[in-house]
Design a protein that fits this description.
- By secondary structure, this protein is mainly β.
- The protein has three domains: about 5-175, Sandwich (Immunoglobulin-like), CATH 2.60.40.680; about 185-330, Immunoglobulin-like; about 335-423, Dockerin domain (Type 1 dockerin domain).
- The protein has five helices and 25 strands.
- The chain has helices spanning about 5-15, 235-240, 350-360, 370-375, 385-395, and strands at about 25-35, 35-40, 45-50, 55-65, 70-80, 95-100, 100-110, 120-130, 140-145, 155-160, 160-170, 170-175, 185-190, 190-195, 200-205, 210-220, 225-235, 250-255, 255-265, 275-285, 295-300, 310-315, 315-320, 320-325, 325-330.
- Strands 1, 2, 3, 4, 5, 6, 7, 8, 9, 10, 11 and 12 form a twelve-stranded mixed β-sheet that branches. Strands 14, 16, 18, 19, 21, 22, 23 and 25 form an eight-stranded mixed β-sheet that branches. Strands 17-20-15-13-24 form a five-stranded mixed β-sheet.
- The longest helix has 14 residues, at about 5-15.
- The radius of gyration is 38 Å and the shape is elongated.
- The N and C termini lie far apart (about 105 Å).
Length: about 425
Amino acid sequence: MTNNLKVALTVIAFAIAPGVLFAGGALSTLSISAPAQVAPGSSFDAGVMLDNGDGEIQGWSFAICHDPADLTLNSIATGSTTATVNGGATAEFESLNMYTDAWTHGVIINLFGDFTLPIGSGYELGVGSYTNDMPDGQTTTMFFGCTAGEPPVATTVVVDGGSLGVATEDQDVESFDPPLPPSTFRVDAPATALPGGDFNTRVMLDNESGDIQGWSFGQCHDETALTLNSMVLGATSSTINGGAELEFWALNFEVGGFTMGAVINLMGTSVLAIGNDYEIAIANYTNDMPDGSSTSLAFCPNLGDPVITVIVVVDGISLSVNQVGADVQSYDPPIVDYVRGDANQTGSTDLSDGIWILADLFLGGPHNDCFGSNNANGDASYDAADAIFVLQWQFLGGPNFPLPWPDCGNIGDEDDCETSNCA
C-alpha cells in the first residue's frame, strides 16, 4: 500500500466517522459567518469559515447546530473554498447532510494528498441557508459540536493523516424587525408669487412608515404676509378610499394657519401604501407682501383647540413625521419689451420669422423665451397660425402685426416675454 493511499484512508476514517482525536491541534478555528440580526420570517445564509493554523490540511469534518424551533434549515451548499481547493476543482470527496437541528460536512481534498489547504484564514467551507422563525426580539445560537449523523460526525481537521482538535466560535442571531423610517409631510409651493396675486400650495406626504390609516397636521403662515383663502382635498385624499375620498376628514381655518385630520376608512379596509408624492391637501393664498419680501410656510404643533398634532397613524399607533416647509418670495418681474412677430429675435419681422416658428413647432428647431414675439397674430396662442400670419403679411397683403410692432414695446403683461433683443 502506498503512503499516499494510507494517508487517504486515514483521512476518510477521521473525516467521515472519527472517533478519537489525536493530541495537540486547536491551532485552527471554525467560525460561523452569519448576520447578527435578521428580520422575522426572512431568510439568511450562514457560512462556516476556517482559519487554518495547523499546517497542510487534507480534510475536515464538522457538525453545525441550531434550535429547530428558532430556525428552519432550508439548504446546504459547498463553500467557495471547498469548490476550488482541489487544484481549482471541488474537493475529491465531499459529504453534505441535512438534519432537523443540524447539518454536517465531511471533506477529503484529494485522495492521494496531491492538494491540501495551506495555513491561512477566511476559508469558506460550506454554507447553510436558514429561515428565521423567531418573533421580534428573540435570540438564538448557532454552534458546533452537537451530535449529528450516524455515526456522529466530529469537528476536526486532518493534517498528516491525523485528526486535530479545532477551536470553535458560536454565532448569536437576533430576530430584529427594524422600525421603518419616519414619513415626511412637506409643503410644495412656488418659489415666487406676484404681489397681490393668488397662488396654490400642496401638502405632500412621502410615506415610509407602512400602511397609513390616517393623519393630522397643522400648517402655519404669517398672516401679515399671506391671506389664506381656501383649502380642498388633494388628489390622493380624493381617491384613496377605494376610489372615493377619505371616509372622515376635516379642514379647518385657524388663526395663523389651517389644520387637517383624516381617517381613510373607518373599518381599515383602505390604507395609504408606502410611496412618495401623495397629494394630501391644496391651500390657496393671496400674497400680501411687497416686492422683494419673503415668508415661510411650515408645519406647526400649536394650532386648533384641542391642539392638532403632526402625525400619521399606522396599525393604530401615532407616529411622528419629518416636516419640510417652503419659502415664498414676493417678486414682481420686470416687463420686457419685444417686437411682435420677431420670433428669431433679429430686430425685424420677415419671412425668416415664419420659417423659425414652423421649425420650432414641428421640427425641433431653436426656441426663444419670448411668447409675445412668437405669438405673431396676438391671439394668446402660439401655433401654426402665427407662421401663416407672418407669411400672409409678407406676401399676400395680410394685416399688420398687433402692437408692439414695428418697434420695441409691451402691452403691460410680464408673462409675455422673458428675454428679447429689445433690452
